[in-house]
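This week, work through this protein record:
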Amino acid sequence: MVQTSNLPEAACVRWFEEVSLRDLPEVGGKNASLGELTRAASELGIRVPRGFAIPAAAFRWYLEESGLWDWVQTETKEGNLRDLESLRKTGQRVREAIRGTPLPDPLQEAIVGAYGKMRWGARQPAAVAVRSSATLEDLPEASFAGAQETFLHVRGEEALIEACHRCFESLYTDRALSYRVERGFTGTVTLSVGVQEMVDVSEGASGVMFTLDTETGCRDVILINAVPGLGEPLVQGEVVPDEYLVFRTMLHKASNPVLHRRFGSRDSRLVPVAEGVGGVRTQPVSPSQRESFVLNQSTILTLARWAEAIEGHYRRVAGRDLAMDIEWAWMGGDSEPEIVQARPETVHTQNAKHTPTRFVLKEQGRVLLRGVSIGSKIAAGRVRILKNPSEMHRFQRGEILVTERTDPDWEPIMRLAAGIVTERGGRTCHAAIVSRELGVPALVGARNATSGVEEGQEATLDCAVGENGVLLEGLLPFDEEPLPPVSDSPLRTLLHLNLADPGEAFRLRDLPCDGVGLVREEFLLAGEIGVHPLALLHEAELAPALREQIRSLRRGYADGAEFFVSKLAEGVAQIAAAFFPRPVLVRLSDLKTNEYAQLLGGAAYESREENPMLGFRGASRYLDPEFREAFALECRALERVRGEMGLKNVRVLVPFCRTPQEARGVLEAMERHGLCRQKEELQVWMMCEIPSNLVLVEEFAELFDGFSIGSNDLTQLLLGVDRDSEKLSSLFDERHLAVTRSIEEFVKRAHVAGKPVGLCGQAPSDYPDFARFLVRAGLDSISLNADCLLKMRRVVAEAEKES
């Protein structure tokens, strides 16, 4: 405590180690939190820069001594803040009055005295951050973050006094007054000021972290954002930060629990200048910093562990389970980071559970197009007709994409679309599969779609009416209604999800499912990586322009191989962590030659096939001498997920395996790259989608731990129907007797061999009668799309009662 004569004891400057959360009414939320952290730093094993608080009593004493207190309270009564113009004028009057009234000498002496006891540099006084800490700030119910002023890198006595004075004045900024009125805080509000030593981040970084996923409220992860230099551009939304997502379940069990890294913008950094109030400047980052992630692995894990420790401490002290919003700074190199702020996170204090809904159209309109409906949602927006993905710049988020057909190059656009309409394709075409996994409604096989609607016209896509959907004229009203609760009674038949978008995993994790039955690697290859693996392995052999394009995509990674392995591993890991410890079945890559050729650099490595569906795909590709090194990258990625990240709930699914000899070759190749079946709990399953799989059940059962029926390819090959042919679409039916009888026989023989059988095709999501058939046939599990899981759960429960 620092006191001078004539300064009341309650107004004395207090060091952070003298303050705790109990002192919030005296020093405000921010300073109370810093005091609590400082007192607990040694016990928690964290670092907090030294500092002190100018208590709210000093602010009130200053206004009372100057004769301003009663006048300010009268001016800022709610009646004087009734509209924006009145609020603006009131705030301006109050701020001008405070600005023209110097701080009393005793208060200035106390501030300068405390400042003199802080650590000093070689030739200059300490640089400090000066932060406002209102008595209604950083509460669990309302943050008030940014409502009052903060000044960074303040150096020198005069600059410090000026910064404190300006913080006092900022209690009456328009935004602070407006926020208090909006949130109903009409009582007396005072202000404390925190003075804290600055961490020199000239060669380091700053950022924020949250002890939850800020999009879904999931508490199993810690989210860290980082920028080079000072963190002000991050807070103000001026830059895209690096992002790191850490799986806290494995934080103390695995060597690399980082689920996801995202490379941010890196052109400049904010650094301090020599002196003044808030003295900062922008400078370019070095070439090496421009190509590297802001944080190294050690610092990421240190921050995550500290975040978990801080959250646990606040839980004990506050007696509430609070997620935390924490600011940190790091000098770089081998130094440890330091915590400069911590507050309760206010958006997801309680994690909202996913509420299942159904879509209902309230009005009918003129039918513009008809086709096969994908998903069970309704969407409305303006029509955007595109011929190819190169027109992406014309597409706006929330529009309805209308095109002839899609392939993996379209996926960035599809992610932005409210709905998708294609002229070609059936229920299992690319547009259908991807739109389901993105949760975007789609209409496929809509004849003359690109000529049947006008660019820019308003339309409503209704896919909630059954197998056939429509595009209707106009923006029609619709409701999204919650579904009734589902019985918690366990089912004999396990229900899994088909899931490919890592960004959806944490949103869907609370659905009543038993795990994930299908993660398609090819979706991650196209959406997360976008480059042919052989092009990444042989960058030096590529044309200069292509080489530069690929290097730009893989910024932050040492080479193309590490980029591929990291991105694939992180995509799988996010899904596996979201559903941990439930099983997650990851299907090895099954792109066809024409799809591989469309990846960046792919044309040089792929031959043209007349029928790619029956060509160089699946298991045969992994064993081919020209592709073996690419397959090795896939294995390395999955081994990293299970080994370094500790996600042993990941199982591997081998697709399109034609013969037992191929199967043995794939298993041997996997073992060479660290994926040994039945070691470290690893299960390897095989897709059943080729007639030879049906005939040789017992031979394949000796080699695999289970089977997953791919009803799309199996139906295609049993009936001799190209599943992408709209002319033959009426013949393509998973419910055909040839298909159902084959499935029944396969399940029987697989069970005799002691192997479980699941199904991950589209049919049960579309046809309740097919799902009932699967239950009668004795399947162990059915994998479904998220939008129909709850409906199918009821269907399966009824079927189990009947069987």
Summary: The chain has a mean pLDDT of 87. DSSP finds 29 helices and 30 strands in the chain. The first helix runs from residue 24 to 44. The radius of gyration is 31 Å.
